[in-house]
Amino acid sequence: xxxxxxxxxxxxxxxxxxxxxxxxxxxxxxxxxxxxxxxxxxxxxxxxxxxxxxxxxxxxxxxxxxxxxxxxxxxxxxxxxxxxxxxxxxxxxxxxxxxxxxxxxxxxxxxxxxxxxxxxxxxxxxxxxxxxxxxxxxxxxxxxxxxxxxxxxxxxxxxxxxxxxxxxxxxxxxxxxxxxxxxxxxxxxxxxxxxxxxxxxxxxxxxxxxxxxxxxxxxxxxxxxxxxxxxxxxxxxxxxxxxxxxxxxxxxxxxxxxxxxxxxxxxxxxxxxxxxxxxxxxxxxxxxxxxxxxxxxxxxxxxxxxxxxxxxxxxxxxxxxxxxxxxxxxxxxxxxxxxxxxxxxxxxxxxxxxxxxxxxxxxxxxxxxxxxxxxxxxxxxxxxxxxxxxxxxxxxxxxxxxxxxxxxxxxxxxxxxxxxxxxxxxxxxxxxxxxxxxxxxxxxxxxxxxxxxxxxxxxxxxxxxxxxxxxxxxxx
Length: 476
Known about the structure:
- The chain is built from 23 helices and 8 strands.
- By secondary structure, the protein is α/β, with parallel strands linked by helices.
- It has 4 domains: about 5-85, 2-Layer Sandwich (GMP Synthetase, Chain A, domain 3); about 90-295, 3-Layer(aba) Sandwich (Rossmann fold); about 300-370, Helicase, Ruva Protein, domain 3 (Orthogonal Bundle), CATH 1.10.8; about 380-475, Chromosomal Replication Initiator Protein Dnaa, Chain: A (Orthogonal Bundle).
- A 5-stranded parallel sheet has the order 5-6-7-4-8, with helices on both faces.
- The chain is globular and about 75 Å long.
């Protein structure tokens, strides 16, 4: 018996019923039957690219072979090949750029419109900055590559109400890979395009609001906000809910209520639901019941494109050799890449010289030890910053927003992210803030390094001091 072409038709039909619409259209529909080998019972399928082939091999190949065996009543070997792109493939690859052009006018709307699109977030805005400055993140400014294309398209589809079947959409990625960027972009897009009522919160904020509502006998108000007055709910860092049974139960009921109403949900986390410890199995199942999109670490080509985009946004020209060297030296997250770019641009500004390979190497010597573990505890970094500004660590952690405290606090948060391996959440606790406040502070300092020479001098002096402390720590 040979393997007839109808076997593949049966496999496709079963997968269409099993997978979410977005997963099926993204990964299965582009596959094409090349041949059914008459000799060794083999299905040969072609993929539009190497990345697509690897993703299908990792996530779907086992199920394809199983369904083919069921349809053919004997073992079938499935071989995945990469085909030369045709017009349909090229059109698919051009889709992100076309969408970016279409949403660009949204990103250029007035600052006050964007500032109203989301509820205020519990964070320290940078000095002299508006809410628009803090959250200048849109689909148009998100650099797309194989590592994040599926996550971006899923967020855009959910924001525009095109793929309701995949709600909740669950974004999973390590720190600094762009899940917050996409979450903010989806919230703004839904508000601007469809007039959706958006509720945006972190896992920590959701927990704190729930506890405050219980203490103040205002649970009805809490439920009305999150369940009834919401067309799109965005909750970031749901791994924060581990071990918090009461909060998990409330979120489970909230998700079920929103599902009944047909509202959309977007969740982000650093782990898949099943990998979060101390998470209620019912909540994990509900979170994974829609569509999970993973943002993978960017490859060299995508990191280079991100560098060009961020440099161009700041009016900085980078020679191709500089981009290649930065990409080679900084293989980590986008946040690490931004740190290297900030150091390079600040050095060029301070030295009043053009960016060349010698300056790139000099900047990398300063940045790479900080991207790797320096051996400094965040508490020591805070103490060093407090001493430099003639204040106390307790003052930096206070609720005051006086400029003489706000600026040192932001600098301390920035340096903690560069000199330690601690998470944003852990750093935020030192200051009585959440991880979003730390992220905002880091962005504020990075902008300041590009724009304000006095701040650059102060930060450079602190860096020299911390370098000395780190060297002394390693000698002990």
